[in-house]
């Protein structure tokens, strides 16, 4: 009897999921998900890996996935503990010699799978470029522009697969949950946590594209700091594997063909391709991304040393309203707009002169859409390390452009009651920058 474990971490969906299909080499498949506390409760640079909000959301997602299997009269094994140890224990219980899983991008997660010693079969189900479209890492372009131009104008993307669900899945109900996992769940699970599952993903996708037709104004609205339909919010579901990027891409293409195509429909695919590029960059350079200058030699993995300015930034108490409002939004909701992320990152790196890795670790802690490649590569991109040039933003200009009436700041900083754009005026403790001065004059003229 040939058995294989099938690890559904980052593959929590029924659509376009090769892990669910028939696997000819095996007689039985054992479904499992693992939550590794080390990825949530330990620290890096003195910063906890995950907030309670992020841990609770992930735990609720895995419990929901297990319940979906139960509704199909199938067993999904939920384990909480060291990933390698949990997989080896289950492999021993079921006499399995192989492990099937979604191919990760995070070096840490890849090493966990490799350390099992089981025969690995990895399927890259969360990338746009799969199978024969997979890029050669040795010749991967050094910039996104070159990567994009290499594949346009007729950009080929793996079409979502219509797969027959395998009848090979087997499991003993008594082994679905062990005592250690049950104890962890009773300690950390909360029913009020956000449920970012496949049903929510597909509902959001359908509404954004077909009902609200927000895809038609995406390029203009994507820089908004908040708003229900300014951003797709697919990031939550792409990060946890409950939404297939190929399915999302194809839905946009279908809309373009059946309704209309414009610069905005192209732009949302453009940003999916950005996500794709960072996935391959992470695979190309692996743990070098966590060096101070990313993969630029010499590699420097020494821990960054924060100061009081970083602590105030983390609390949203820098005295610069646009930065503080965005941080407060993140602390309360687990999300921040793309424009907000760029602004707070720029301020931390260039004005506060902190190591970019501190900001990346803080985002990892709080973002409900945390994705290793997207997070760390985007921070390196702003900092100008790796293969990019530095991108410093003028925060006063950004405030005037993206929150011209100050509504966003007053919402997240209710203590700020100044009317209009003048609410963006920096507090006395903020060191004013010379290149801000023309825009500070504009603010003063609005008093």
Account of the protein in words:
With 447 residues, this protein is of the alpha/beta class. Among the domains are: 91 residues, Serine Threonine Protein Phosphatase 5, Tetratricopeptide repeat, CATH 1.25.40.80; 138 residues, Orthogonal Bundle (DNA Cyclobutane Dipyrimidine Photolyase, subunit A, domain 3). 46% of the residues lie in helices and 7% in strands. The protein is built from 19 helices and 7 strands. Strands 5-2-1-6-7 form a 5-stranded parallel sheet, sandwiched between helices. A two-stranded antiparallel sheet has the order 3-4. Strand 6, helix 4 and strand 7 form a beta-alpha-beta unit. The longest helix is centred in the middle third of the chain and has 23 residues. The protein is globular, with a radius of gyration of 23 Å. The N and C termini lie far apart (78 Å). The mean pLDDT is 96. Pfam families: DNA_photolyase, FAD_binding_7. One of its GO terms (molecular function) is deoxyribodipyrimidine photo-lyase activity. This is DASH family cryptochrome.
């Amino acid at each position: 009897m040939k058995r294989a474990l099938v690890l559904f971490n980052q593959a929590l969906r029924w659509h376009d999921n090769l892990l669910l299909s028939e696997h000819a080499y095996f007689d039985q498949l054992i479904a499992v998900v693992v939550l590794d506390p080390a990825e949530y409760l330990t620290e890096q640079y003195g910063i906890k890996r995950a907030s309670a909000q992020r841990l609770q959301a992930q735990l609720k997602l895995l419990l929901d996935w297990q319940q979906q299997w139960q509704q199909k009269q199938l067993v999904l094994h939920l384990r909480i503990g060291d990933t390698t140890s949990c997989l080896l224990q289950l492999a021993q219980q079921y006499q399995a010699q192989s492990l099937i899983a979604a191919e990760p991008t995070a070096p840490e997660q890849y090493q966990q799978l490799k350390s099992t010693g089981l025969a690995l079969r990895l399927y890259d189900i969360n990338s746009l470029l799969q199978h024969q479209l997979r890029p050669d890492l040795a010749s991967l372009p050094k910039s996104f522009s070159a990567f994009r131009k290499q594949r346009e104008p007729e950009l080929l993307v793996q079409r979502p697969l219509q797969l027959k669900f395998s009848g090979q899945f087997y499991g003993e109900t008594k082994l679905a949950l062990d005592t250690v996992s049950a104890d962890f769940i009773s300690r950390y699970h909360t029913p009020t946590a956000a449920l970012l599952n496949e049903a929510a993903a597909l509902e959001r996708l359908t509404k954004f594209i077909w009902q609200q037709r927000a895809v038609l104004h995406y390029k203009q609205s994507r820089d908004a700091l908040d708003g229900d339909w300014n951003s797709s919010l697919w990031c939550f579901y792409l990060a946890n594997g409950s939404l297939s990027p190929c399915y999302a891409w194809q839905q946009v293409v279908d809309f373009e063909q059946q309704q209309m195509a414009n610069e905005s429909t192209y732009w949302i695919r453009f940003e999916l391709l950005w996500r794709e590029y960072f996935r391959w960059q992470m695979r190309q350079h692996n743990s070098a991304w966590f060096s101070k200058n990313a993969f630029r030699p010499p590699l420097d993995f020494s821990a960054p040393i924060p100061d009081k300015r970083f602590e105030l930034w983390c609390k949203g108490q820098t005295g610069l309203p646009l930065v503080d409002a965005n941080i407060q939004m993140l602390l309360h909701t687990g999300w921040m707009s793309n424009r907000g992320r760029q602004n707070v990152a720029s301020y931390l790196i260039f004005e506060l002169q902190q190591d970019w890795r501190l900001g990346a670790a803080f985002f990892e802690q709080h973002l409900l859409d945390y994705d290793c490649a997207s997070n760390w590569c985007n921070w390196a991109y702003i900092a100008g390390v790796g293969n990019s040039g530095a991108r410093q933003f003028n925060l006063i200009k950004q405030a005037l452009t993206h929150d011209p009436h100050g509504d966003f700041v007053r919402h997240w900083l209710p203590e700020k009651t100044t009317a209009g754009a003048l609410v963006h005026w920096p507090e006395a403790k903020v060191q004013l920058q010379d290149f801000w001065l023309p825009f500070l004059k504009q603010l003063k003229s609005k008093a």
